[in-house]
Amino acid sequence: MIKIVEYNEISASEIFDRSAEEARVETAVAEIISEVRRRGDAALLDYAARFDGGAPERLEVSEAELDAALNSVDPELLEVMKQAAENIRAFHAKQVRSSFVLTQPGGVVLGQKVTPMEKVGLYVPGGTAAYPSTVLMDAIPAKLAGVGELVITTPAKNGTIPPAILAAARIAGVDRVFKTGGAQAVAALAYGTETVPRVDKIVGPGNAFVAEAKRQVFGAVAIDMIAGPSEILIVADGSSDASQLAADLLSQAEHDALASAVLVTESRTLAEAVAAEIEVQLSTLPREAIARRSVDDHSKIIVCDSIPQAVEISNALAPEHLELCVDEPFALLDSVKHAGSVFLGRWCPEALGDYFAGPNHTLPTGGTARFSSPLSVDDFVKKTQFSYYTREALSAACPKVARFARAEGLEAHARSAESRFKEGAE
Questions:
Q1: How much of the chain, in percent, has pLDDT values that exceed 90?
Q2: Looking at residue 22, what is its pLDDT?
Q3: Looking at 212, 254, 277, 320, which residue is catalytic?
Q4: In angstroms, rounded to a whole number, what is the distance separating the alpha carbons of residues 16 and 247?
């Protein structure tokens, strides 16, 4: 059963149990990466046979398979996915950056050139559940950024990828899809194989092995973030509905046995009602065993003195998802300093953000919302600076550059600028 504690009885570090993120799988992942680098496609097929119930006949999904998946998905679900894609596209279109040029008096031109990445790999989980929503959330911003080639890797159980994932890939405009998952898929994207192209960046969530693989290949390739188990923190006042709060907490608990679901409230009465309601709802969940472990081992209800204090607690924890279930949520929004995504009011459950609203659901976990942001169009572009000075402009700046350089003990820097004005220099 979920624990109820007074805030003064628990330290901030104990509220979210993030110890699972310290579990290390380096050795196993390093071996997988080495095998993929050495044996390429053969290693991917061997790992598929070992972990996915059988190796596929071919690693790349064919156009015929993509078309068949699109036609086989329930039409109602397909329509919902298309509507969700439009919402995601509309939100992320506001993030698109443009290059700029700044012209200054005296012959100076400065600027920034925004360039889309050429190749990006999107990892889509497919272990205990399949996530077509991840395809939409991660592929659409990449396409809006102008990525040249966007590829997906995802586990194929018995050689088959769930049709909804392939349909989402079609909707989002993904270029290629490959039947490989786990750390081996990350290695393939980072270094390339005979079939899987080497990419410039890998994005997308995954289990501990995927996260560790992303950590190990970083440097050879860029990554979005190291995503840990899912988290939700709900700030709720005593007027909130216990059954709704329980449902929202369980929406994250069912993701993963290591997920954390935390309620912070000033009402002991509400805390006890939510705890009881969680037990009632748990028994009806198809993923009860997973949610039960999350609730019992990694989730809590915190009773504090006030709602402002509850927000302070949230800021200290920097949760992935934050719900503000109060009458005037916008009055609290400016007080929120650290959170991946904020859901305002009693009619905005976190599940809305997972699937349909439009803001991204690939979010910083493990307290990294203190310094990280949700996945966005910015993750798929590079910014290149440029500068132009005329002779006259450099002449005016040269003494200042030289003085600054010599103050740092870098004589060659100073001479580099001054060399343009030596006698006979053009």
A1: 89
A2: 47
A3: 320
A4: 19
